[in-house]
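subagent[fold] <- orchestrator: predict structure for attached chain, return tokens only, no commentary.
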Amino acid sequence: MNLSWTHIHLILNHFPIVGAIFGLLLFIYAIFKNNQDLMQATYWVFVIIVLLAIPVFFSGTQAATVAHHLPNVSESIIHQHRAIAEQTLIVLGMLGVLCFIALLVFRVPRKAPTWFTILLLVLVIIATALVSWTGVRGGVIRHTEVRGELEFLAPINETKPQDNKASETETEHSH
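subagent[fold] -> orchestrator:
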């Protein structure tokens, strides 16, 4: 078996998700403890997450070419995952740049100003939500067993086939 870009995507894609959740929790803990060393560690966590997210994103393009040929995988499912992944990469990029700047400017014992910490916290929450949603949308591509259970996971451009008998029964009971 040869290692392909699809394999790379599947191997690496969980790291930004788990890392963002860990980073968010560490960031909140560092704020409550008012601990500059933990804050520095948080900055590093997000810089590393961004560095991992880059190959995840670009290997996803190659993985999509393979996924197009899989049964029960539509173009719209892949497109929706890619669209949210693009937004996620932009937000993660902004977060990574701010964290890298923070590593250079706010070295221990120098503390970041409150406005910067609040800005970063908001960005961390948004980035964590986006990276998690990107993971959910990516999981829907291959894990068909979760698609039908949650309506919001259904592709936007596709409609579920409806059972005519169920529709007729609903119509009869609604009168």
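orchestrator: received. Logging for downstream: The chain is about 75% helix and 0% strand. Residues 159-175 have pLDDT under 50 and may be disordered.
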